[in-house]
Amino acid sequence: MQDKARKQIPLRVSAKLYDELSRWAEDEFRSLNGQIEYILTEAVRKRGRHKDSPEAQDE
Fold first, then answer.
1. In the 3-class helix/strand/coil scheme, how is 2-56 assigned residue by residue?
2. For residue 33, is it within any domain?
3. Rounded Cα distance, 30 and 1, in Å
4. Kind plus residue range of the DSSP H or E element containing 57
5. Domain for residue 49, yes or no?
6. What residue numbers bound the domain in which 41 lies?
7. How far does Cα 21 stand from its chain's mean position?
8. What is the pLDDT of residue 50?
């Protein structure tokens, strides 16, 4: 994501999920923060909620 304005949010996850996300991020050569942002962006896009998706423009 190339947004210049970024928001910071606290995120609490279990130790197990943290470890799983860390390994996943490492596998894809991303930081943990970058991986979480990627996963969330993909989820929003797949749900059609992203402002650039055709589904979101119908709302």
1. CCCCCCCCCCCCCHHHHHHHHHHHHHCCCCHHHHHHHHHHHHHHHCCCCCCCHHH
2. yes
3. 13
4. helix 54-57
5. yes
6. 15-57
7. 11
8. 66
pLDDT tens digits along 12-58: 999 999 999 999 999 999 999 999 999 999 999 888 876 765 544 44
Nearest CA to 19 out of 42, 10, 27 is that of 27
The single-letter code of the amino acid at 47 is R
Cβ-contact 56, 49 below 8 angstroms: yes
Inside any domain, residue 7:
no
Confidence of residue 3 (pLDDT cuts 50, 70, 90): low
28, 35 in Cβ contact below 8 A?
yes
pTM value is 0.71
Number of domains in the chain: 1
- Residue 8 falls inside a structural domain: no
